[in-house]
Write a structure and sequence with these properties.
Blueprint: E1 2-16, E2 19-32, E3 36-40, H1 47-54, E4 62-67, E5 70-71, H2 77-87, E6 88-92, H3 103-113, H4 118-131, H5 147-159, E7 165-169, H6 177-192, E8 197-200, H7 204-209, E9 212-217, E10 220-223
Parallel strand pairs: 3-8, 3-9, 6-7, 7-8
Antiparallel strand pairs: 1-2, 1-4, 4-5, 9-10
Helix pairs in contact: 3-4, 3-5, 4-5, 5-6
Length: 226
């Protein structure tokens, strides 16, 4: 079942009155439900721009982005925010945790903004903490956690709203190889349970773990099933 479709997606950044940069030059891509997909390519190939568009952090200059049954290409800022909060999960290289909050509180944040009652969101956050292997570390603050543990918190937080798609931007980039492998094992387990994951990476070892690799160059998909 098709979960997301990009149709001739283009993104141009206007740097000045007479200077523009074509970041995406007509990307066509279909993501099926349960896909575990790596987006790879050299720096400047358009990987991050593609992830931003798929995460509804930005909107295309032209083309269409169909998420589920909805064309989200031209939604208002408020509507895009709603899509991000309810349909998209993000995992970043730098974790982006709130330092003053415990791991459990960080996992709860998306549920808080959805207005979920405290008892219900605390129960879900605790369940997600267990699922990502945080164990008795869930009540520690980020500064008290290792890099791998912080990334596990970030993954649990990304799963809190039960998103249609989990997007990860270089999720092992700040981790040593052994810890990175542990995080990829967790991604593998999520994929086995049917979670749809898109991972932007420059690391071929990460790409080998996924079901499908889409390679980009100069703002276009140059290899990989569209």
């Amino acid at each position: 079942m098709s979960l997301a479709r990009l149709v001739d997606l283009k993104k141009t950044y206007q740097m000045s009155a007479d200077v523009s940069v074509e970041a995406l030059r007509g990307v066509n891509l279909t993501v099926e439900e349960g896909d575990y997909l790596a987006v790879m390519g050299p720096s400047g190939s358009g990987k991050s721009t593609l992830l931003n568009l798929m995460g509804c952090l930005d909107r295309p200059t032209s083309g269409r982005y169909i998420l589920g049954q909805d064309d989200v290409s031209r939604l208002s800022d408020d509507a895009l925010s709603e899509v991000r909060s309810r349909r998209i999960g993000f995992v970043f290289q730098s974790f982006n945790l709130i330092p003053q909050l415990t791991a459990l509180d960080n996992i709860e944040v998306p549920l808080f903004y959805q207005g979920i009652p405290r008892r219900q969101r605390r129960h879900r956050a605790a369940d997600l903490a267990d699922r990502v292997g945080l164990g008795d570390r869930a009540r520690h603050r980020p500064a008290e956690l290792s890099g791998g543990e912080q990334q596990r918190v970030a993954i649990a937080r990304a799963l809190a709203n039960d998103p249609l798609i989990l997007l990860a931007d270089e999720p092992t980039g700040n981790l040593d190889s052994r810890t990175g492998d542990d995080i990829l094992d967790l991604f593998d387990a999520l994929a086995e349970r049917g979670r749809t994951l898109i991972v932007v990476t420059h690391d071929p070892q990460v790409g080998k773990r996924t079901h499908r690799i889409v390679r980009m160059a100069d703002g276009r998909v140059v290899n990989g099933k569209p």
